[in-house]
Amino acid sequence: MRAAYEAELEELNKDIVSMSEQCIKAIQSAIDFLLTQDGDQQADITGQVQQISHQERDIENLCLRLLLKQQPIATDLRNVSAALKMVSDLERIGDNADDIAEIVAKKNVKPEAVKDSDLLPMARAAEDMLSRAVNSFVKQDESLARMVIDGDDVVDEYFDKVKLDLVKYFDSDNQENIDGVLDYFMIAKYFERIADHCVNIAQWVVFIATGELEGHTN
Description:
The chain is mainly alpha-helical.
């Protein structure tokens, strides 16, 4: 009986990794769309995000089965409860990628403006945080998870630079593209939120390892 339960726990871990990989693809697609503004990419991102939502529901159902099937031990409860929270953050990451794609589709933010700005390295840093967060989960590596948490400072620094650049823009006489400026800010804000969700995921990895849940970002 216990062996079957552990097999389902392993299935749960694999499903979370699969969902995480889909989220990474969605972020990468959103960044590519930002740089190329190829119209077909928005539909691809929407499809990826729909798949993420399906995966979330499947994982939630599996978690409930694991909690109800037999009396779980304390470690099981940590793993399953953390999984339920992690998939919620992953689903929000997918939504944020879709939000970015919707803004990019309006074409108020020009690719050439992104390539020479702080927005692109900020986006890449958020993408890297998710990759490392997933890796920390796969390896059950607390130290790597804490590196992800610390890495949020890098994204925050880029976000501060983006905001400063926008303040300078409003202080200049070059204000013909206000919609583009506002869209640029919102894209940066969504990448900042993605980084926050990566921190949450890393904190759940720490919780699995230690049983202690540290500061959590909504």
